[in-house]
Amino acid sequence: MREFVDTAAEAVSRITDGATVLIGGFGNAGQPMELIDALLESGASNLTVVNNNAGQAEAGLALLIKERRVAKIICSFPRQPDSWHFDEAYRAGEIELKLVPQGNLAERMRAAGAGIGAFFSPTGYGTQLAEGKETREIDGKNYVLEHPIRGDFALIKAYAADSYGNLRYRKTARNFGPVMAAAAEHTIVQVDELIEGCLDPEHVITPGIYTDTIVRIPSSSGAFQRAEDEALAAGRPKPCAAPADEAPAGGDIAPESESAAAGAAEQK
Amino acid sequence: MREFVDTAAEAVSRITDGATVLIGGFGNAGQPMELIDALLESGASNLTVVNNNAGQAEAGLALLIKERRVAKIICSFPRQPDSWHFDEAYRAGEIELKLVPQGNLAERMRAAGAGIGAFFSPTGYGTQLAEGKETREIDGKNYVLEHPIRGDFALIKAYAADSYGNLRYRKTARNFGPVMAAAAEHTIVQVDELIEGCLDPEHVITPGIYTDTIVRIPSSSGAFQRAEDEALAAGRPKPCAAPADEAPAGGDIAPESESAAAGAAEQK
Amino acid sequence: MTDTTQNAQNTQAPRVTDQPLTQQELAQLIAADIEPGSFVNLGIGQPTTVSDYLSPEKQVTLHTENGMLGMGPQAHGDQIDEDLINAGKIPVTELPGASYFHHADSFAMMRGGHLDVCVLGAYQVSATGDLANWSTGKPGAIPAVGGAMDLAIGAKDTYVMMDLFTKKGDIKLAQECTFPLTGVGCVSRVYSDHGVFLLDESGVVKVRELHGITFAELQEKLPDVQLEDRTGA
Amino acid sequence: MTDTTQNAQNTQAPRVTDQPLTQQELAQLIAADIEPGSFVNLGIGQPTTVSDYLSPEKQVTLHTENGMLGMGPQAHGDQIDEDLINAGKIPVTELPGASYFHHADSFAMMRGGHLDVCVLGAYQVSATGDLANWSTGKPGAIPAVGGAMDLAIGAKDTYVMMDLFTKKGDIKLAQECTFPLTGVGCVSRVYSDHGVFLLDESGVVKVRELHGITFAELQEKLPDVQLEDRTGA
Fold first, then answer.
1. Is CATH 3.40.1080.10 the classification given to domain D4-227?
2. Per the CATH hierarchy, to which homologous superfamily does domain B3-100+151-227 belong?
3. What is the pLDDT of residues C100-125, one digit of tens each?
4. pLDDT at position C35, please?
5. Residue C4: what pLDDT?
6. Using N-to-C axis directions, what is the helix angle for C103-111 and A102-114, rounded to 10°?
7. pLDDT score, position A67
8. Out of C66, C81, C143, closest to residue B175 by CB
9. Whole-number Å distance between alpha carbons of A30 and A191
10. ipTM attached to this prediction
11. Which of D25, D35, D57, D65 is catalytic?
12. Which is nearest to A166 in space by CA: A122, A126, A200?
């Protein structure tokens, strides 16, 4: 049965030593910071953690690693300018690292949630990261056999949950959330908002079947959403909308407007 | 470049003899009937068709089969009380049938769209439908190796497209649409509504990258949606809502049942 | 087959009776055995009737594999929306908390073992839980499988709901299926008019309930099957 | 490598010049070569600058692998929304027609070949299009791959944007990569300050443009690589 709890501490209280914990987020977007802090507080150790990175600076996952509570990390991009706690643990041989290309990481968790036994991915073929793995040529293209990554627990952040445990996310904070929710035995979600009643069934991103424990922890996402709601209600563009003269035309119907300029796209 | 065309005939005009065509829909829900009719009209023959069924009664796919335009069909459930045209063609040895369990059908198209070379599925293991296929035991469970199903074209029905080719669907009419759109080289969509401007980016189900040709063909879905919109605007429950006394309580928080956000979030 | 509550019996009804269960009693029994808060897929036909006995307080959520959780009862009159149908292509209603998703996501939900229970019909079930329910194997018949093979393995537990005997009097529980298989070792319980049987890979069939048939009579019908009396009678 | 327009050159700029291209000129050249209506992912660092030269009329849609199509320019001031970042974790904006999706869907979009072009930086590229851009292979370095290997094979065409020579003067185009590979045979074009090179599985490098270097000088730097002069000079 789904449970709604009042504190992050309660939410993570089931997590025991040796558990595999999928932790959502990409950068700060979608990162369940308060749940990670609660996990730190809980004392659970000998964890296997799956996250895109390996902790940054003096917060969250970095502190779990600093305290040597993470025996093994499965991630795509551990090395960052401020990943000093991971770096130290790794060089000391006190943490095991499984490096997985980011798309394979996502797809391997998707496979876990979808009951797929293994799949052939083209990503990484012919590279060091495929060494020792089974390969196969299919229709003239080379693939590497990849296996599911399952979690005992997932810690994710969504924007809102309704009383049925259905979730919606905000913008790129969606990232690993839906995939991890389905890949874990028990999914723990922190949300900015609890909706009384229910989300529109057409707009549910993670159906309640994938959520187990939900705790409301307001974060800055709520402030951003309120600013957006206010702007839309007042007939103004969303705050995050590119200036009109930068907006490119879309399809053949409304062929006006402008271009796209990305910020620096680091492959983190 | 995406094209918006005026007629179903124009929409299907690229489909040539021998093409593999993925046709959406489950029952009448999401069935692109007018596109199928146009395909019939177009004269294209020697087709390979992928659909959940093999045509019913005297309409759509059944007529394509009646006229022996379908050389091969890949489906999960051809035999129905009113599938007489398929039955006749099949017994006459004039159509090739590849029977695929429904979930494998969906996942094999998903694999095509996702660039997966093949995957191990537990479905069908030990059955006639896995005969001759590679099997493997993984973590004590048995799987069958399944390969992608790609389309040259997809014919699907969505509820609405915006000017960027983004799609939304209605209820269970979503079914195979998003999967087929990604699995086909060229995706042709019939929609009830063309949205000027754009769908809410959070509610896009099929991003415009997967759509190529779009044609507006109003259908009964529009009438159902309008009835629903009117009911919600008037504060009444959706017409399709189960009567209150049939509604089970939802979560632990708000056991009243209200559809909160319905429709309110489309930007235009 | 991950049935962890094989001995659970949530109803207070007697486990041994002289008369076979009616279809309604059988549906009621299955409904009573489904745990509160479960996510359930009810197969086409007889299994659908189980929903009539799922009380709202149990907060059971119904899945339909054509892309929905939170399916309500069949739609009538003005409720009918052609875009809202179940796997049997019958118009249904939407319950609060519902969600829609596409076919690949829907079958991923089943294949990934997220549903608690699937209730399915069967032509035959073997002592080790093999299921035959998609084809009678008649030569010349046009095959059609639909979602049967996905449903067979599509939940933590697969329950079969069936008459124990065919109209010709053949027993549908057997040491091995003679009809083409739908799934191997996937059925954990058989709910029949003549009894409830718990299956696992051991091949020893635990007989939880008997209705209108005695243990001795059943064993006589199944000479090759090892039965274990769990009726407590 | 499915580059069907290898000889296309959308700019009118001369194909052979005495001076190497500036970074701006190179970005401009790539932007000009991207077909109208394309879906494009611009990788780490230098490739990002290509977006400055994508004219609105071309209706190019930018993908960021952390789950978005229709990414706009970097956000400033009140535009900043911590939930809207690019793959470099920098706040960006949303353009009309944008859509959000989860990580598995986003990488499926790349792996499935739906993007038209990825533009990436490189340490080295081989004559047959092998790419090395994720690791210098230094012993003791902590490895990190991110989305590099997914991006390498994540579009119909992968373009590399790089200086042709390292600061030490080593040429970064080679018969074979000596750095650890990111992908095999995945690069179809190299856009460098000293020229544009078209690659395919033949290993014969078609030289489309040369800037500040002659064909003979280039061949001298690449004694083991078979070059074909397509500059028309």
1. yes
2. Glutaconate Coenzyme A-transferase (3.40.1080.10)
3. 999 999 999 999 999 999 999 999 99
4. 96
5. 45
6. 70
7. 97
8. C66
9. 10
10. 0.94
11. D65
12. A200
